[in-house]
Amino acid sequence: MIEIQLSERQEKIIDIVRANQPITSEEIAKQLNFTRATIRPDLAILTMSGILDARPKVGYFYSGKEALSFFSEQIKNMTVSDIKSVPIVVDEQTTVYDAIVTLFLEDVGSIYVTSDGILTGVVSRKDFLKNAIGGMNLNNIPVGVIMTRMPNIITILPGENVLNAAIKIIEHQVDSLPVVEEVEKNNKSGYKVIGKVSKTNIVRIFVDLYNNS
Ligand code: ADP
Q: What is the 207 CA–ligand 1 centroid distance (Å)?
């Protein structure tokens, strides 16, 4: 998106149009104590950039484009650590049965799995259902057997932009991403899980931004 830097006078013009639309250029100039000629270049920039709409013989309207750039402006400045939630994590040795109980108790759709504190996998509702209808003995099998395993886990770093998280969720068709930090353990590098970004977190941004705009 092309960013335009508006002058103070252009911002004032937008405010006047928003409050009085439709409004003619004479009326805008009068409210600002300028001549029409002075504000003509400002009106040209504002209509060319799509912020204002000019209708002949009617006047200027506010197009609402500013609200859209407010949305993108806010999203551009939001990182994963601003929106992440608490992850639910179990050890690989946890039985499938206990992991299902955790899923219900914590009211989540997926659980992250670790071994010695390092991310090794993700297990979701569908993984549990698939194995349950397959007749697996849920009390004997560790969750590590049925999970999606590293290196196939899609992760995100806390400093990444929230839009990246949304794109990864859509592209990989998953409900959530573990937020991770790279750590060294026994001379091997791995990921420590420090949060979770899910479709719910992303939808919440949408509602919050609308309420604050
Ligand atoms: P659900 O099972 O509720 O539809 P998902 O769409 O998140 O939840 O999971 C679908 C599949 O993708 C499951 O097999 C799960 O193990 C796997 N999965 C979930 N999250 C991730 C992720 N971040 N990276 C890789 N695989 C994942």
A: 25
Establish whether residue 179 lines the binding site of ligand 1, counting it when its CB lies within 6 angstroms of any ligand atom. no
Give the CA angle between residues 169, 171, 172 to the nearest 5°. Answer: 70
CB atoms within 10 A of CB 213: 11
Both tokens of 23, joined, read: 């409004």
Decide whether any atom of ligand 1 lies within 6 Å of the 109 Cβ: yes
Q: Does the C-beta of 22 come closer than 6 Å to ligand 1?
A: no
Best mutation site among 160, 174, 177 for ligand 1 pocket (most ligand atoms within 8 Å of CB) = 174
CATH fold label, 80-207: CBS-domain (3.10.580)
Atom 12 (ligand 1) nearest CA: 174
* 41-64 residue pLDDT tens: 899 889 887 889 999 989 999 987
Q: How confident is the model at residue 170 (pLDDT cuts 50, 70, 90)?
A: very high
Rounded-to-integer distance, Cα 109 and Cα 125, Å: 6
The token duo for 68 is: 């859209």
Structure tokens, 97: 């049965």
Domain 8-70: top CATH class: mainly alpha
List the chain domain ranges. 8-70, 80-207
